[in-house]
Amino acid sequence: DVDPVTIKKIEEAYVMLNGPDGAKCSSLLKKNLTKDVIEKLKTKSTKLGANLYDCIRSGVYCLDALVGVYAPDAEAYTLFAPLFDKIIEDYHGLGPDQKQPPVDLGEGKTKEFPPLDPKGKYIKSTRIRCGRSLNGYQFNPCLTEDNYLEMEEKVKKAFSEFSDEELKGTYYPLDGMSKDTQNQLIADHFLFKEGDRHLQYANACNFWPKGRGIFHNNKKTFLIWVNEEDHLRIISMQEGSDVGAVLERLIKGVRGIEKQVQFSRDDRLGWLTFCPTNLGSTVRASVHIALPKLSAREDFKQICDKLDLQLRGIHGEHSESEGGVYDISNRARLGLSEYEAVKKMYDGVKNLIEMEEKET
Ligand code: ADP
Ligand code: DAR
Ligand code: MG
């Protein structure tokens, strides 16, 4: 079970979150980490040794977090369900008796997503990503250096077995990558950024950059991140607004790698991810789009919220928009299929473009 020092840290977290220091904090952790939940869970640890403090540490140090929790391993979602289920219900609207629908990547339906902006008036590029966790491995906080290296070897082998010409490519470990190459890949939106404090405080960056890297095909239209926030992020992206083509390639990639690697899926929560905000379909379908008139309105964010769309800056989460370009994506991930998540973005962005055209 859990050592007394850790139990004390959990109890102190509650006092801090509900005291003067936590006054401005509005995270789902603060809302749902009640005395009752703490009494129920503070002495529990998963088979692989993860405890409640491992789940909440990020939100204790990052009072500006929206959510503030991460799962240290798959079992945490079940063992610490009194906390996670409440946060999952608040964030995704998934009630205790609801569950993720069966997998539907959208095979045979990509024709439903023709280019959103054929003339290229608004949309610069389209990206669809999903997350996958390798069966039998814990999530970041509990991984040893050997785990990171083992996982990297395992997926590197899987990448080398891609047969489809569109998927074939090379794996580039972060360890040893020149700063210039790394910075260029980040600037060009292909590689993940470093130093996200929410991840650092979640103990998600141990042994960095060991076991981390990026696979991509020659055109950089199919990419896979290894051990950033999730074990894998599988990404399809290209210039323009042809959502169907981007989804077609993502489907090929997911089907390609799942032949070699077993992913952990929960019957109710769908594909398991480190952060509960990415559970279920794990799909984030986004466009880099400039809507000069609409984005000038002070209710632009509310307009997006009403369409269940999430606004991010030009470099993704926790970044600002540049030159009026925003990253707009589906907000919902859990309680709808992969295909439905893409459709949420597609229909929402279509709506925004129609509004932009009508705006005087
Ligand atoms: P994720 O949900 O994949 O972790 P992030 O918000 O961390 O996304 O952003 C990851 C990277 O993907 C950033 O560099 C961001 O600029 C890039 N990105 C997101 N959407 C698009 C898009 N439609 N076109 C080009 N790059 C994109
Ligand atoms: N720092 C977390 C981010 C939640 C969603 N983003 C992810 N998982 N990258 C927060 O609670 O704000
Ligand atoms: Mg990210």
TrEMBL record:
Tell whether Magnesium is among the UniProt keywords.
no
For the Phosphagen kinase N-terminal domain, which residue ranges apply? 11-93
* Catalytic class of the enzyme: transferase
What Pfam families does UniProt report for this protein, alphabetically? Answer: ATP-gua_Ptrans, ATP-gua_PtransN
Alphabetical list of CDD domains matching this protein: arginine_kinase_like (cd07932)
Which PROSITE patterns does the entry link to?
PHOSPHAGEN_KINASE_C, PHOSPHAGEN_KINASE_N
Matching InterPro entries: ATP-guanido_PTrfase (IPR000749), ATP-guanido_PTrfase_cat (IPR022414), ATP-guanido_PTrfase_N (IPR022413), ATP-guanido_PTrfase_N_sf (IPR036802), Gln_synth/guanido_kin_cat_dom (IPR014746)
Q: Name one GO cellular component term.
A: extracellular space
Q: List the GO molecular function terms.
A: arginine kinase activity; ATP binding; creatine kinase activity; kinase activity
Q: Residue ranges of the Phosphagen kinase C-terminal domain?
A: 122-359
EC number of the protein? 2.7.3.3
Q: Which residues bind ATP?
A: 125-129, 189, 233, 284-288, 312-317
What's any GO biological process attached to this entry? phosphocreatine biosynthetic process
Q: Which UniProt keywords apply?
A: ATP-binding, Kinase, Nucleotide-binding, Transferase
Is-annotated flag, keyword Disulfide bond? no
Identify the PANTHER family for this entry.
Answer: ARGININE KINASE, ARGININE OR CREATINE KINASE
Task: Name the family.
Answer: Belongs to the ATP:guanido phosphotransferase family.
For this entry, the protein name equals: arginine kinase
- Organism, per UniProt? Caenorhabditis elegans
Q: What is the lineage of its organism?
A: Eukaryota, Metazoa, Ecdysozoa, Nematoda, Chromadorea
What is the gene called?
Answer: argk-1
